[in-house]
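Let us practice reading a record.
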Amino acid sequence: MRILVVEDDKNLNRQIADALTEAGYVVDRAHDGEEGHFLGDTEPYDAVVLDIGLPEMDGISVLERWRADGKKMPVLMLTARDRWSDKVAGIDAGADDYVAKPFHIEEVLARVRALIRRAAGHASSELVCGPLRVDTKASKADVGGMPLKLTSHEFRLLAYLMHHMGEVVSRTELVEHLYDQDFDRDSNTVEVFVGRLRKKMGLDLIETVRGMGYRMREPQE
């Protein structure tokens, strides 16, 4: 899962990005509205953390332009605690949720997880496919109760497929959501990770759809 953090306070930006990275997300960062708008307009994100009070272009304007251009990624707006009008303006502009400053980083993480879950149509942080269970909150997975030892990239790939269970996901889409903007992307690595996941799970849950990509499917009866 790939997240964009747009916050002009460099320390806060870094703290949020570090926490999201530690939680298993791929994170891109921007420090002003123009840079944030450009990244959100040109790169695919599973969620965005967007501050209202940004230089160059304020967060409300950034969000309004994204929504006007048809960008549907869930957005968590950061607002000032004593500015209720900012919260209203953010929701009206298309924000999916908001958190008021000062806040605990854990609250941001929880709200980001919830936004991604809801966007994919899931109500719980635990995603299940047959005997496979993926806990997106704890960044863990198991098969029949037996823990899977996964690398960070393997877990990200598995979590993305689980969030889009039953859908065909192209290699290009997987690469775009597994790596940040500066990574030297190679779609061939996806095949390697899929092969490792199949071996570690010992289950035939990841289907290869020739010429299109991969699909997570329920086990056959």
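A brief commentary: The chain has two domains: 2-119, 126-216.
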